[in-house]
Amino acid sequence: MVDLSTFKPINFVPGKNTMTVSKTGVAISQAAVVQLGKPKFVEVLISYEQKSIALVATNDQNPNKIKFLDKNKKTLTVRWNNATLKSEIANLMKWNISKKIYKVEGRYYPQDSLMMFDLKTAQVNQ
User: Fold this and answer.
1) Alpha-carbon gap, residue 67 to 73, rounded angstroms
2) In 8-78, which residue ranges form alpha helices assigned H by DSSP?
3) Partners of 20 in the beta sheet?
4) Rounded Cα gap, residues 2 and 43, in angstroms
5) For residue range 97-122, what is the model confidence (pLDDT) as tens digits?
C-alpha cells in the first residue's frame, strides 16, 4: 500500500485569490476564502515595511480575531466596509480609493494557513 500520510488535498477553486480595495470596502474573493479553508475568523496583519497584508485563519480564542465568513452565507465572498482598514491601506499606498479600485492577487501559504497580498503589485481600475 502507498503511504499517503504526508499528502494533503488540493482545493481546486474557480477564479483567483484577490483582495479588492475601494471606497465601498475591502473585498476578498471566493477563491481566497476557499483556499483559506472558509474560516469563521482571521487575523489581519499589515507590514508597513513590505507593504503587504496577511490574512491568517484563526479561531475564536485569538484576541486579534476578525469575523471573516458567516457559515450561513450563500456566497463565499467577504467584504469589510471598515473605515480604519480602508484608510490604513490607502494611506500606506497613497491610493485614491474614492476614485479608483485596486485589485491585488494573493499568494496562499498552506503550511501557515495564510494568504499574503503584496500591495505593491496592485492593478488599478477606474
Assistant:
1) 13
2) 30-35
3) 27, 103
4) 37
5) 999 999 999 999 988 999 999 999 99
